[in-house]
Design brief:
heterodimer; A: 235 residues; Fumarate Reductase Iron-sulfur Protein, Chain B, domain 2; 2 domains; B: 354 residues; alpha/beta; Glutathione S-transferase Yfyf (Class Pi), Chain A, domain 2; Rossmann fold; 4-stranded parallel beta sheet; 43% helix
Chain lengths: 235, 354
């Protein structure tokens, strides 16, 4: 059976991202996530390069790997040519593939991302789509957005967009042939399998913890997406 | 040691002269739905360039990729499909409107160079899924690169300049460069990552004054999954606030950004900070207006701000219009195609909106 490190070494982002870290901490100094939380990329890279299988598994089950914002500021500044963010990308993929992600509150939130961004891609061909952006989910959009939503067809017509139209332009309907090609790519390249894995592992976690688990933007989704009343994680 | 000129040379990039295949941005189409057509209008009407807007394109999937949601192979194969569309349409110069996409395309091409198996795999997946093949673009740039390249040609047709009509001084411009424009591959961005010039060059050429401030290179705070999940948004607003607090003492007149996400966050988080803390960063209770590079060019060319969609910014743009001396009709701000009234958005409590 392959070890976690053997799996990690098959990911180009891991081999490209980790050369040899001498722990200077430049990545942490420049990191926006470290600026606003106790996230510390230097510690992660140091841990990963120890090649301790048990410590790696613990990391994959933790919130830590989900705190990065993937801005890649660390890539620019590392004096040794490491890219902590690439390593994070590889760790996140392995955490989902290995089914470890449901052991952390932040990892479990991948379900909410699958049910928004993932499903927007499969339904519309866009990562985000106007009809799915409500003020309840995105209150920072402000009153201008509500006005836009209320009058979207007329405003988009004035602005020359192609909303709901079968022609080139902003917010056009993406034709079925194109959508089928996109969905087929998702099927062939492993995205659909990953989505199924996220759903199945999330359902199993919900069952174990006695939470009701349905489809779409259900109560379980809302807890993950909105956070609890204190604005913290899901439980 | 390289001398200054050699160092600068290293961060110049090839920007094709004409005939572009245009790849749209998910965020811009939704949040700034007129900006991309404005970009193409400037290319076609002002610069007389050929640019192809393909209805068969899709999202590049970059937002999903950087949220840890989809495999690298998926994004590579979607990128391969976009390149196949470019090849089928007879183009070789690929221009993307999104900085996340620009980072994705650049990253994919670099990865294919260093890990040829990944390119082969993407080609196989693309062929099995869609029956398509593709050529690698000869030139890959971001839309802001093109405005930068032709900044002096565009300027020749300006009606206005970055000069404050009230005090006669240059307009003070904060430029914000999206992280994925040059922080991943500094040699792929005009000016590199430490001293990017792609927007500062517009400020210099169009009569403005660059605002240099301590957090100039700090991320806007998108963070992908840190914004896309409501429970995680403290990350995003805190990083934007760090920038606003840092730039405030320099009293900027306007912020320009080349990344769709950054433009959105620097606009919307000013509104949220005002509503949460009664704190505004502009003058007289306004925020600092946030524009894209083509919106700024469009204003200076004399286009109607409301035809450019500036009424969809949450931070009112009127203060910068008035400083530059741009003629506009406030009564047309919230009207439809035939001038019909569509009411107006509710007014925020703590930030002036009109």
């Amino acid at each position: 059976m392959e070890t976690l490190y053997q799996k990690l070494e098959q990911d180009p982002r891991y081999t490209e991202g980790l050369k040899a870290c001498f722990n200077c901490g430049t990545c942490t100094a420049v990191c926006p996530a470290a600026a606003v939380s106790d996230y510390d990329p230097r510690m992660i890279i140091d841990l990963v390069q120890q090649k301790d299988e048990a410590a790696l598994e613990q990391l994959l089950r933790s919130d830590t790997i989900w705190m990065c914002g993937e801005c890649l500021s660390c890539k620019t500044r590392c004096p040794r040519g490491n890219t902590p963010c690439y390593i994070i990308q590889a760790l996140r993929a392995l955490s989902i593939e290995g089914g470890f992600f449901t052991d952390s509150g932040q990892g479990r939130k991948q379900l909410a991302l699958k049910r928004t961004i993932g499903e927007h891609l499969l339904e519309y061909g866009y990562c985000i789509y106007i009809d799915e952006i409500s003020l309840d989910m995105y209150p920072e959009q402000g009153p201008v957005w509500q006005w836009f939503l209320d009058h979207r067809s007329a405003i988009l017509e004035r602005l020359g967009a192609s909303y709901k139209m079968d022609r080139a332009g902003a917010l056009r309907n993406i034709d079925e042939v194109t959508m089928n090609e996109l969905r087929q790519i998702f099927e062939e390249s492993g995205a659909m399998k990953r989505f199924e894995k996220i759903e199945a592992a999330s359902e199993e976690y919900a069952r174990k913890t006695g939470s009701r688990f349905g489809e779409g933007k259900d109560e379980y989704f809302n807890r993950l997406y909105h956070g609890n009343e204190a604005g913290k994680n899901d439980e | 040691m390289m001398n200054k000129n050699e160092n600068w040379e290293r961060y110049q990039k090839e920007i094709a002269d004409d005939h572009y295949y245009f790849a749209r941005s998910c965020i811009r189409q939704n949040f700034f739905p007129a900006a991309e057509d404005l970009f193409m209008k400037i290319l076609r009407d002002v610069l007389h360039k050929d640019i192809f807007d393909d209805p068969k394109q899709t999202s590049c999937t970059g937002i999903a990729y950087h949220s840890g949601l989809i495999p690298m192979e998926t994004t590579m194969s979607v990128v391969a499909r976009q390149f196949a569309l470019m090849t089928e349409a007879g183009y070789r110069n690929f221009v993307c409107s999104c900085v996340t996409s620009f980072g994705i395309y650049t990253e994919v091409l670099e990865t294919w160079k260093h890990f040829p198996d990944t390119e082969k795999k993407a080609r196989d997946i693309l062929y099995r899924s869609c029956g398509k093949r593709f050529e690698i673009p000869e030139n890959l740039v971001h839309t802001s690169d093109i405005i930068y390249k032709f900044r002096l040609d565009i300027e020749k047709q300006f009606r206005y300049y970055l000069k404050n009509q009230i005090d006669g001084k240059p307009i003070r411009v904060v430029d914000h460069i999206g992280c994925h424009y040059a922080k991943i591959f500094p040699e792929k961005g005009v000016g590199g990552a430490e001293y990017p010039y792609v927007l500062a060059g517009l400020t210099d050429a169009w009569g403005g004054e660059q605002v240099d401030y301590p957090e100039r290179r700090h991320c806007c705070g998108f963070g992908f999954r840190q914004y896309l999940l409501k429970s995680n948004r403290g990350y995003s607003i805190t990083n934007s606030k760090r920038k606003f607090d840092s730039m405030e003492p320099y009293r900027p007149d306007v912020i320009i950004a080349n990344c769709p996400g950054c433009t959105y966050f620097l606009d919307r988080w000013q509104y949220v900070i005002a509503e949460m803390e009664s704190k505004t960063y502009g003058e007289n209770g306004y925020g600092i207006p946030v524009l894209t590079y083509e919106e700024l060019a469009g204003l200076l060319l004399g286009y109607d701000p409301w035809d450019m969609g500036l009424q969809l910014h949450q931070v009112a743009v009127e203060p910068i219009l008035e400083k530059i001396g741009i003629t506009f009709d406030p009564d047309q701000k919230y009207t439809g195609t035939n001038g019909e009234s569509m009411g107006s958005p509710a007014s925020p409590l703590h930030i002036k909106s009109v």
